[in-house]
Amino acid sequence: MKDNGFDIGLIDACRSNDRKAQEKLYRYFFAKLLPMIRRYAINEDDIISIFNDGMLKVFTQLDSFTGKGNFEGWVRKIVLNSLYNYFRKYNIKVKIFELHDYDKSLNGSGTSVLDDMYYEDLLKYLNILPKRSSEIFRMYVLDGYTHKEIAVKLDISEGTSKWHVFKAKEQLAKTIKLNIAGYE
User: Fold this and answer.
1) Domain ranges of the chain
2) What is the rounded end-to-end Cα distance, in angstroms, of the chain?
3) In the structure, what pLDDT confidence band is assigned to residue 125 with cuts at 50, 70 and 90?
4) What phi and psi values does residue 2 have, to the nearest 5 degrees?
């Protein structure tokens, strides 16, 4: 029987510590959630570690899933929380080197403002961008897609992809500069 698109039998088998069922669930979400984690983490070992931590929590907390709501959304939320915990635990700062062209050491200390940017700050700034520019910027900078791959995936030209990334970098740099000027 399926509930919200998921086989309840598979979920029950995972609750009973059936290793094959757990592996099937793990593999299903591995393919679905790794791209989400890759948007924010660069190191492949960290990406796998974050995912494994999230899935361990899923398996240990499976009894708390009552069947109300979407199971995939529940798993996604747990894995996303593992990603947030990872960044909090290691106090990781996000570095986007592609923006340095626009940065010009705005903080006056000779170091890049972007060297001090935290993960949460970057997400806040990306949400300010127009939706399409933000999407293409994330794909190019965070997910590592080429302009050609983006063009094919979104059915746009490579030039359009490059323009969106350029405009996103430009707008992010201006926004960062304005925010820094406001704190000085």
Assistant:
1) 2-90, 97-183
2) 60
3) confident
4) -110, 140
In order, the DSSP letters of 125-150 are HHHHS-HHHHHHHIIIIIS---HHHH
pTM over 0.70: no
Average pLDDT over residues 98-110: 41
Phi, psi of 93 (to 5 degrees): -100, 140
Chain centre to alpha carbon of residue 137: 12
Domain at 97-183: CATH code: 1.10.10.10
Tell me the CATH number for domain 2-90: 1.10.1740.10
Confidence of residue 118 (pLDDT cuts 50, 70, 90): low
Question: Is 122 or 112 the better-scoring residue by pLDDT?
Answer: 122
CB 174 within 8 A of CB 113: no
Residue pair 172/99 in contact (Cβ under 8 Å)? The answer is yes
What is Dmax (Cα atoms) for the chain?
Answer: 62
